[in-house]
Write a structure and sequence with these properties.
Order of helices and strands: HEHEEEEHHEEEHE
Strand order of the largest sheet: 5-4-3-2-1-6-9
Shape: globular
Structural class: alpha/beta
Radius of gyration: 16 Å
Number of strands: 9
Low-confidence stretches: none
């Protein structure tokens, strides 16, 4: 019998632009300066993963974030941008809800497209190990942000792939109370996250060469 992680692995691999998957770009939603080189590197990856209310480059929006979204990792409080559901039938949507480990059982919002399938990320196989790696107390309702969860998932599914990170402002500025986004206004950082722990982990990957940050 396949585990939840096996199911996710098969679906993620099937949505990659090229196989074997040797390069994966995980793109957060922080505002970035326009940079054609960054956008080119993201779009050249074998697999591109976006999170929540992401933005893509276009004729009117040259942000340096690239144009592809093979896999989208979302959580229940998603604030959809114009790009989130554009071409949704060609993407994989993974539902990231670690709060369910603490009796936080929100269902999908009523506006979710009725013909859009969505696969849950298994908390037992993904978020619980991630929380332990971040040093979180398992009895307390604290978990990683969606961007860090997406990067961690890549390390689980494609440990030998070259991991590219972009749009993660907290890696270098872990003390924040609100976040600016590439599209839309700022949002308040909720108390269930500990950015210092996440920043420390992601920086360690960059420093040991297992990940590359596209500044």
């Amino acid at each position: 019998m396949l585990s939840g992680l096996d199911v996710v692995a098969g679906l993620v691999g099937a949505h990659a632009a090229r196989r074997p998957v040797e390069t994966v770009a995980v793109v957060g939603n922080a505002a970035v300066e326009p940079d054609p080189a960054r956008a080119k590197a993201i779009d050249a990856a074998d697999l591109v993963i976006r999170v929540n209310g992401f933005a893509l480059d276009g004729p009117q929006h040259p942000r340096g974030l690239g144009t592809r979204a093979d896999v989208v990792v979302v959580q229940w409080a998603l604030q959809a941008t114009p790009w989130v559901f554009a071409g949704y039938r060609s993407r994989l949507y993974l539902y990231n809800e670690p709060g369910m480990m603490y009796a936080d059982v929100e269902r999908l919002p009523a506006w979710w497209p009725p013909d859009l399938g969505l696969v849950p990320i298994p908390n037992r196989e993904v978020h619980q190990p991630l929380s332990r790696a971040l040093g979180f107390d398992p009895t307390q309702p604290r978990w990683a942000t969606t961007g860090t969860a997406a990067a961690w998932l890549v390390r689980l599914l494609h440990p030998d792939a070259r991991l590219l990170l972009a749009g993660f402002s907290f890696i270098w500025t872990p003390v924040q109370s609100s976040w600016d986004h590439a599209y839309g206004g700022a949002s308040v950082l909720t108390g269930d996250h500990e950015l210092i722990a996440e920043a420390t982990m992601l920086r360690s990957w960059i420093e040991d060469g297992s990940a590359e940050y596209l500044s």
